[in-house]
Amino acid sequence: MIKVNQIRSAAESAKLGEIDMAGYVLSRCGSANELDVEQYKNLKVLLSCEHAIYPSGGVEDIGFCRELLEELKPSYLEFTVVDPEKIESSRAQLNALAALDVRKIANGLFLLKDDISLLDRTAHMDALVQSGVEMFQIEIESLVDPESKISSKGRGRIAEFFFRYPTLIGDSFVVSTRIPDVQQRGFYLNLSPAGGRSYDFSQQQYSLSSAMRIIKGLRKI
Predict the structure, then answer these.
(1) What number of other Cβ atoms are within 10 A of residue 80's Cβ?
(2) Cα dihedral 90→91→94→95 (10° resolution)
(3) What are phi and psi of 50, to 5 degrees?
């Protein structure tokens, strides 16, 4: 599976016809990097694939989320995971997730060369699954970059983790598209925002032309 996020225009949609899932950031009013409902509707019809919507206010804005789900009926509702150490905020997020009857994707998760502590957070991952999360979107730094490659021992643990929790991975795809098999279900790429950071705090961003080249390479894996 290949998922592309932060799609904002018809021109981008027209060149992404072979992806498996499209990700859109929605807000009540729209902005340079966000869409309003009508903009989303206009773009959705251009891609015959699954769609994930990310409410910019988070799943805690239950009223807006319910409005979106009722009107748009997306394949998935996507959200950024609250750090479980923020106990009250994390509990509020889990309660909000449980109240929303839709398949969910969790983003904002990272595995770094010098920090793979996410692998030890199985209790929180299980709680997210119990709240309806079916897919996790995790950025890895890195399986391919020789300057920041995770050790082979770490990759073994990652494979066990991804076998338990279905995951789409992001990585330094510009370095190489020969991604090792660590039981990932697929890949995701964020198109470069008009300014500022990506919606999921990812460090990896791609122009449309770069994304198209990478997608072609990933299809050959």
Answers:
(1) 16
(2) -140
(3) -70, 155
Share of the chain above pLDDT 90, in %: 84
Enumerate residues 6+ apart whose C-beta is below 8 A from 144: 171, 172, 173, 175, 176, 178, 179, 180
Query: Helix 37-44 and helix 62-72: axis angle, to 10°?
Result: 30
Residues across the chain: 221
User: Is there a contact between 101 and 131 (Cβ–Cβ < 8 Å)?
Assistant: no
Q: Which residues contact 174 (CB under 8 A, 6 or more apart)?
A: 206, 210, 214
**Inter-residue contact 73 to 101 (CB < 8 Å):** no
Q: What is the pTM of this model?
A: 0.95
Query: When comparing pLDDT for 220 and 73, which is higher?
Result: 73
